[in-house]
Design a protein that fits this description.
The complex is a heterodimer. Chain A is an alpha+beta fold. In chain A, 30% of the residues lie in helices and 29% in strands. Chain A has a six-stranded antiparallel sheet. The C terminus of chain A is likely disordered. By secondary structure, chain B is α/β, with parallel strands linked by helices. Chain B contains 26 helices and eleven strands. Classes of the chains: A alpha+beta, B alpha/beta.
């Protein structure tokens, strides 16, 4: 059971260490935004949600892009993983996925800033 | 386990299972290999029934090929995924452990699909990796070293193009090679446990490592699906397109089916004419003409409508659009505690609740699935149509309202809408009371769009037609014969004033039920027609014909019946019967399907009772309201 809280704390610590407050749960992301998965935790749903997310490709290091959202309440989301597979999920479950900046995207936006942690 | 030697054993069937994630083209591959009879679609987990086919390899091995439900992992989340897990592990009752497993993956999505292969490899059983849709991967510039992949994995790797007959030769010869090798015993299957989250992360890393070594050149990402989704999943345009598609679908069901329905009608009429000309008057003649042909004709006539509806559903599934519909509907459905995935079973239920109830197997959460099964019969299935059509023609004037909208069509729409609203309300009520429980996460792949495969669609349609005709040949036919028997015996006494059926067993039952049904405006004729109508809705029209002692072919009966009913019933009674039909659980086959799917009589019994109560209440309110408004 230790993995869930532990992992999240590590990821936050990692993000803080690099000097970026730019981490957010996938469920908060807007349409069109891109990022890299920092941590996947079960959240309220426990291991089943965590495993479900991992099995659908949401794993630490994966590139995620929010392509679409539903017409009511901007829910659910359609998320492209690693440019190969698109997954529909609700924001509520998407919150179990913590997303940080994408290294290459960050380079495009802010040249000169390098973030090595994403690939580790 | 000892070594199996198959080379000289012609009689022994080698059993090979096809396993793969949803949308890996597994079912298409199965169809190509076996020329089999089954349907395929893009909706995750569409392969819900046990599908097997036989084939012979080039060397001459006889093989039984098993098409297992698509699954992302051996950790089964839904009932159909559990079947995949249990067969692969040899835990499925009455299903021997497969001699070999072929893991089918989409070559354009290996990063996600290879994890299942790694899970399977852990079991230590004979395994072949098939990289499917290799043609598409190559078109996008992707190059994969099969040799490196095979070496790293320690299993044979072949490429397949499931759409083409000659795209499966490599797979067949690999199967031959594998079957000629002695099987090494392995205890890994007994030790299998569900992978923990950390184990899945390890599989992810392993896949990454594998692909780094085996992928020579990465393919370009797919563009077309992204562009199409800009339109189909657009917050405003998307729902409008969905609405338009549904409208087109129902429009087609009613207008395209008209001609074939007329042919069937004509065919049955001439068959009746032929028989009545050439047969001597006898009980058998009466049974054949009034019982069997009129009744069967009255049901077979819906085959065109059912096939058109399923054609649309199969096309939408096979093209990949169906999951988009589920995506668009998810928020609405979650308001009543359902899942967007429930949209597909419920849509199928407009044709017939039975395939709808079966399609609910793809819903992982047991409570969501049960709710979907319980409300599926509220979707207006095609068996209600004959009753709706008859009553609307008899009682609703063929006028237009609000500048051009036909009143009859409007009433029909209202009946459909009542069913849908009733289903949604009922789902909400169930999820708040009996079936209270956690919400199921929506985790659904939106596969790439593709042109529907004509062979897949055709096989799916044939399957539907077969199921429907078998239903007619069994349940409906026996009910019709029973009905004929009940309404023919005993014969009326001399000097009878009422029609013969009044004195028959059916009349006895109907008159017995009359006091119960009088408060909702039903007369004894309706009561009699409802008795056989409980077994199958569409029989009620033929039964009414019998009750009103109308004879002739099926078409003229309907015409005469329209006139008789308009004269004999009040508007309030007709409306009450329509309201009754929206809810009443009048289909034995649906209850049997619910029994099979829930594995107990508890839920079908509940389904029957709640629908009956709803039907009675709806008919009562409608009847009283219509009377109060002067519809008596």
């Amino acid at each position: 059971m230790k993995t869930h809280g532990e992992r999240e704390r590590q990821a936050f610590a990692l993000a803080q260490a690099v000097g970026l407050g730019f981490t957010q749960p996938l469920g908060r992301m807007r349409r069109g935004s891109v990022g890299r998965v920092l941590a996947v935790s079960g959240g309220m749903g426990g291991h089943d949600i965590e495993r479900g997310l991992l099995e659908m490709g949401f794993v630490e290091g994966a590139r995620v892009e929010v392509l679409h959202h539903g017409f009511l309440g901007q829910d659910p989301l359609a998320v492209r993983i690693n440019q190969t597979m698109t997954i529909a999920l609700r924001r509520c479950e998407a919150n179990a996925v913590l997303v940080g900046p994408l290294r290459d995207a960050a380079e495009e936006v802010k040249p000169g800033l390098t973030l090595e942690y994403a690939s580790s | 386990m000892t070594a199996i030697t198959l080379a000289n054993e012609e009689m022994r069937l080698a059993r090979i299972a096809l396993v793969g994630p949803p949308n890996s083209g597994k079912t298409t591959l199965f169809n190509t290999l076996t020329g089999g009879r089954q349907k395929t679609g893009n909706y995750p987990g569409v392969t819900v029934e046990r599908k097997s086919g036989r084939l012979r390899t080039p060397v001459g091995h006889a093989i039984e090929l098993l098409d297992l439900p698509g699954s992302y992992s051996l950790r089964a989340r839904s009932p159909d995924e559990a079947i995949t897990r249990d067969v692969v592990l040899g835990r499925q009752a009455r299903e021997a452990l497969p001699d070999a497993v072929v893991c089918v993956t989409d070559a354009t999505n290996l990063g996600q699909h290879l994890r299942l292969l790694l899970e399977l490899r852990q079991l230590g059983r004979p395994l072949i990796l098939a990289l499917n849709m290799m043609d598409i991967a190559q078109k996008r510039g992707c190059q994969i070293s099969l040799e490196a992949l095979s070496r790293r994995l320690g299993i044979p790797v072949v490429t397949t193009v499931a759409m083409r007959k000659n795209g499966v030769q490599d797979l067949l010869s690999q199967i031959d090679t594998l079957l000629n090798q002695p099987l090494v015993a392995s205890g890994a299957i007994a030790d299998w446990v569900e992978p923990a989250p950390e184990a899945i992360r390890t599989y992810h890393r392993e896949v990454e490592q594998l692909l780094r070594e085996a992928v020579v050149q990465e393919g370009a990402p797919e563009r077309l699906t992204r562009q199409l989704d800009q339109i189909f999943l657009h917050p405003v345009v998307g729902p409008l397109i969905l609405l338009g598609l549904l409208f087109l679908m129902f429009q087609a069901v009613f207008s395209w089916a008209e001609a074939p329905m007329d042919w069937i009608d004509g065919g049955m009429a001439s068959l009746q004419a032929l028989l009545s000309e050439h047969m001597a008057d006898s009980l058998l003649k009466s049974l054949l003409i009034d019982g069997v042909i009129a009744g069967v004709g009255g049901v077979v006539i819906f085959l065109p409508q059912i096939l058109i509806l399923f054609l649309f559903i199969l096309l939408l599934e096979d093209s990949g659009y169906m999951t988009r519909a589920a995506f668009l509907m998810d928020r609405l459905m979650s308001a009543v505690g359902l899942n967007g995935r429930a949209f597909i079973p419920l849509l199928s239920s407009f044709a017939c609740a039975i395939p709808g109830i079966m399609a609910a197997r793809t819903i992982a959460h047991p409570l969501d699935r049960l709710t979907t099964i319980l409300i599926a019969p509220l979707m207006t299935c095609s068996a209600r149509l004959p009753v709706y059509v008859l009553l609307i023609a008899a009682f609703i004037p063929n006028t237009t309202v609000w500048g051009g909208i036909g009143l009859q069509g409007l009433v029909m729409f209202g009946l459909y809408a009542t069913g849908i609203v009733g289903a949604l309300v009922m789902a909400g009520v169930l999820r708040l009371t009996l079936l209270r429980g956690g919400r199921q996460p929506l985790l659904m792949e939106l596969p790439s769009y593709k042109w529907p495969n004509p062979a897949n669609v055709l096989l799916g349609l044939l399957e539907r037609a077969r199921i429907f005709m078998r239903r007619i040949g069994t349940i409906i036919l026996s009910v019709l014969i029973l009905l004929w028997f009940l309404s023919t015996f005993p014969a009326p006494p001399a000097g009878a004033t009422e029609p013969p059926v009044y004195y028959s067993l059916a009349g006895l039952i109907g008159r017995g039920l009359e006091p119960l049904l009088a408060p909702i405006g039903f007369n004894w004729q309706i009561a009699i027609a409802l008795v056989p109508g409980l077994a199958a809705r569409e029989v009620a029209v033929a039964a009414l014909g019998t009750v009103y002692a109308l004879s002739g072919d099926e078409g003229t009966v309907t015409e005469a019946l329209t006139a008789t009913l308009a004269h004999d019933w009040t508007l309030a009674t007709a409306l009450a019967l329509l309201a009754w039909y929206v809810f009443a659980p009048q289909c034995l086959a649906t209850l049997a399907a619910a029994r099979r799917e829930t594995n107990s009589w508890r839920w079908p019994t509940f389904m029957f009772v709640y629908l009956m109560v709803l039907a009675y209440l709806a008919a009562f309110v409608t009847y009283r309201a219509a009377l109060a408004l002067g519809g008596g």
